[in-house]
Design goal:
alpha/beta, 31% helix, disordered N terminus, two-stranded antiparallel sheet
């Protein structure tokens, strides 16, 4: 630990042009893969990655302080930090050197609006709405365009982080009924005779959909819209040697203003789902996991002390995670400011000490080999003074 005092439809015919237009079997393969998971709502990092060794933790967190022993005990990482008990798969990856938790981190944003904070998180800008393009799209655009689609969003429309000039696509499950194969074959034949471009798009969409269906997309509605089956589908896209090299997933409902809970409650359930999702992604990636990095990040943290509704309000310093076979894990990255009242940001929040732009730049440069000049010019303009975090990726 670094311490200043010591990461469109299930039915193949429905809105087919929203599917990725991958040219399967035609693009040159590359081994490195990146998954970005955005936790929308502001995850409470002091519960996901509790600093139980901080002398002020228990008194400051009060009824939201997680126990070190007994029922609901945390999973220790080092003398200061632990994981919530529902992150058992995360803990196993940490022990395997495949998880790097990051604490007291933030973007350049220092206010408390979800919309503004998410905008800055996804654009990499220094202020809200300063850019209309995402840092991941611009970074992918700086690489050799070896694929028709360099990135994919597992959502109905591309989130801001993937918007920009580089070619990307989307895929999401649909509540519409499946279309019979015979109908799709007839439609494809019609397009081939009347509109070759549309035929090509539909053919690619059907191929991409078959990748998702092999991962169990067909019964996602029956199982509920959980992160694990979607993560499996993301893995199937990424591990295909001719598929995209980056994917983005979103998970909502992290805004825990009331009745947040400890080992049970909405936050605990979300953490269990996230734990299941990352494990499902790793399992599905198989051997490709060793060339993969995952960034799990949220727009801001929560207040250090609980509010009157047994929850937490919008805060500042957050926790993030890097995972994957390419990640140099098994340690916690934290220039820890401490939880003493005098150390808190505005007297209420964990003080940010690590700029997430430095983390993003470090992963993109060392993992995907995005040129440094492109990162500073296109990916994260106005971040020249932000130190690139080194050593995040295995050499």
């Amino acid at each position: 630990m670094l311490n200043r005092r010591h990461l469109l439809a299930c039915g193949a015919g429905a809105a087919a042009l929203s599917f990725p237009a991958f040219a399967f079997g035609q693009a040159q393969a590359t081994s490195k893969r990146l998954l970005v998971v955005i936790l929308r709502g502001g995850m409470d990092g002091l519960s996901a990655l509790p600093p139980v060794g901080d002398p002020n933790y228990a008194s400051l967190r009060g009824r939201l302080a997680l126990p070190r022993v007994g029922d609901g005990a945390v999973l220790p990482l080092d003398s200061t930090f632990a994981l919530h008990k529902n992150l058992a798969k995360f803990a196993a990856m940490y022990r395997a050197g495949e998880l790097l938790p990051i604490h007291a981190c933030a973007t350049a944003y220092r206010e408390r609006s979800h919309f503004d904070a998410q905008n800055v998180l996804e654009t990499g800008a220094g202020a809200p709405f300063a850019r209309s393009e995402g840092w991941l799209n611009r970074s992918l655009g700086a690489l050799p365009q070896a694929r028709p689609e360099m990135g994919i969003a597992l959502s109905a429309q591309a989130p801001l982080i993937l918007r920009g000039p580089a070619n990307v696509s989307t895929w999401s499950p649909s509540a519409l009924p499946d279309v019979e194969n015979d109908t799709m074959a007839r439609l494809l034949a019609l397009y081939r005779s009347t509109d070759p471009a549309l035929a090509g798009a539909l053919d690619s969409a059907m191929s991409a959909n078959s990748v998702a269906m092999e991962s169990g997309a067909g019964d996602m509605n029956a199982r509920g819209y959980r992160i694990a089956p979607l993560a499996q589908i993301a893995a199937r896209f990424l591990k295909d040697e001719h598929g995209p090299i980056a994917a983005v997933m979103e998970m909502g409902n992290w805004d825990t203003h009331a009745n947040q809970g400890l080992e049970q409650g909405p936050l605990a359930r979300n953490l269990a789902a996230l734990d299941e999702g990352l494990d499902a992604f790793k399992t599905e990636m198989g051997p490709a996991w060793r060339d993969t990095a995952v960034i799990i990040v949220t727009e801001f943290g929560r207040t250090a002390a609980p509010n009157g509704a047994n929850g937490t309000d919008h805060g500042m310093g957050a926790a993030a995670f890097l995972a994957g076979g390419s990640v140099n894990g098994g340690r916690v990255l934290a220039d820890w400011p401490g939880l003493a009242q005098s150390a808190l940001y505005e007297g209420r929040d964990l003080r940010p000490t690590t700029d997430l732009r430095g983390v993003f730049k470090g992963v993109l440069a060392d993992h995907l080999r995005v040129p440094t000049a492109a990162l500073e010019r296109d990916g994260f303009p106005e971040s020249g003074g932000v130190r690139v975090v080194q050593g995040l990726i295995r050499g």
